[in-house]
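Methods: holo model generation. Sequences were used as deposited, without trimming of termini or removal of tags, and paired with ligand SMILES retrieved from the corresponding compound records. Each pair was processed once, and we did not select among multiple samples. The sequence and adenosine-5'-triphosphate SMILES for this entry were:
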Amino acid sequence: MTTAENTPTIAARFHLERPGFALDVDIKLPGRGVTALFGHSGSGKTTLLRCLAGLERAPDGYLVLDGEVWQDGPLFVPTHKRPLGYVFQEASLFAHLSVRRNLEYGLRRIADGARRVSLEHAIELLGIGHLLERMPERLSGGERQRVAIARALAVSPRILLMDEPLAALDLARKQEILPYLERLHDELEIPLIYVSHSPDEVARLADHIVVMDAGRAVAAGPLVETLARLDLPIHLGEDAGVVLDGVLAQRDEIWHLARVDFPGGSLWVREHGVPLGHHVRVRILARDVSLALEHVDHTSIQNLLSGTVEAIGEDSHPALALVRVRVGESALVARLTRRSVAALDLSPGRPVWAQVKSVALIG
Ligand SMILES: Nc1ncnc2c1ncn2[C@@H]1O[C@H](COP(=O)(O)OP(=O)(O)OP(=O)(O)O)[C@@H](O)[C@H]1O
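and the model returned the structure below.
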């Protein structure tokens, strides 16, 4: 079991000036799991990722990965000497090489002893075994991106960096790739830094989040806790809400529902064939949660949770407020009008019933 003391970490400090933009970050990231770099367009996510890769050199930058120094003062390990995998928005495969040859490219410089991921394992993880003899021009966008991810993995990186790998794909192709990314997350020890401006992708994949705004990391922490913060410096609008990690605990075969137990409560969700006992993640948007002072008996809403108001914060419109409700060890966020907050006389410490209108099982 990993403890906080021996969890490998990534420490990064970069200051980079450009006309009209400055990157200024000093962050520590966990050396395992998926860390999302999240923020609006132009907030500096790609620039930070490129600094981590050594594609951009911030003067006086500092980067240590699990005790190994990649940048410190005059010391700067060039990108090609850093054991990392980088996946761009658009898969950059060699057009004149088959999928197999694309995958084998770059393997030569990896000593046998340094191979943490075999080529076979990478092919299996991304489900591309049937594509090996194809030329890139005969692959769909989604397949091309899966090959690019397998190629990044096959060089046995110490870290995987992905820059919006799904951004160039349509919704159907995104849905095709997400399960493979989830497999990487579940089966590999390699930390993945994942740039995205999609709250949905972040909710599905990330364990940890760094919120970027105007070149700065304005919030960072475990995903579940960070999304429940009401003081996030960027407004998430319709995407405001929480994710909860839980276990699939019961199935109601008659009504095609499944019960997810999370720390502090239970929720019924639509049945998706997930086996009992499996770890799952649910996403609850703030707009789908309403609050009542008493238990509501005659309602169509299946999920009623008893909790306590913990905090009330501003929302993106002056008519609205976000209310964080503590339910056991977990937190929900509800979006209410300020008028409702006043009418119910809500304030921290007040017991309430949270009515959850919709819960999405996302992984
Ligand atoms: N090569 C460059 N030269 C000068 N300015 C640049 C360069 N690349 C990016 N910028 C600027 O730096 C800022 C941050 O860009 P960056 O690509 O890191 O943002 P981002 O958060 O990744 O955005 P997006 O989500 O749109 O990809 C932007 O203002 C951008 O215009």
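Residues 19 and 108 are 40 Å apart (CA to CA).
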